[in-house]
Design a protein that fits this description.
KfrA_DNA-bd_N, 284 residues, mainly alpha, KfrA N-terminal DNA-binding domain-containing protein, elongated, 7 helices
Length: 284
Amino acid sequence: MTHTPRTGPVTKEEIYAAAEALRERGTSVTQEAVRTECGNRGSQSTINKHLKAWRVEHEEITSRISREVTPEIELHSLDLIAKISEIFGLKADERCNQLEALNKAEIAKREKELDDACAEADQYHMSLGVAEERITQLSAALAASVAAGDQYLDEAKTLREKIVALEADREVNLLTIQQGQQQIERQKVQNDQALTSVGRLEGVASQLRDQLLEKGKQLTDATRIIGGYEESLMRANEEIACLSVQIRNLAKRHAGLELANTLLLGTRELRLPKPTGHDLVPRG
């Protein structure tokens, strides 16, 4: 049993209990021994004070007991011891007589059992010849059984070898199955990863499809704008051509051929270049 160490100051009761424990064990009751018994607690002055009080009380009890034992009490005690011894002696004699009677009855019983056993042994001896003949028959049957047993052992050995081979095949098959299961698990992981990738690709494709639709719409708008711009450009070129003719006629009339050629070159520089679809596509 494990005791939890006490803490705090040591008490008078603990010092008395430690002194009694040391005295009962036959150990010298000293101040250091008492302090060790108390778990190394308490000051020397406290232990010394209570230990002196304990010694005084212990000496008073011892002296009181020695004074109370008078010669009359001692003689009476011896008489009581003698009477008790006599009673125990009578009881012992009575018990011995009982055991002796029981032993005699037990001996008679065992002698009867021995006589019965001897008679039974004689009967067994008479049937011994029949038993020997039966033993001979059983020995022959045993020899045949041993021969058959050897054959069975050979067959069992062959079966055991087949079982060992089957066990080895089973282990190989189990290993193959485990490897197949691991391969299936890896394939499942790869399939899950592929499905995840397909999902991401579908999202990207959807975004690209939306972008293509938006670009197509922008291209349609740009084509429509280009068509309108080309029509405007054609009309402008036609007007420029008409103006060129008018300018040429005016030049011939007022300034002569040199002035007309100069104005004609100027009108050619005024013609705008034909725009391309790339210039009209909105910048992304």
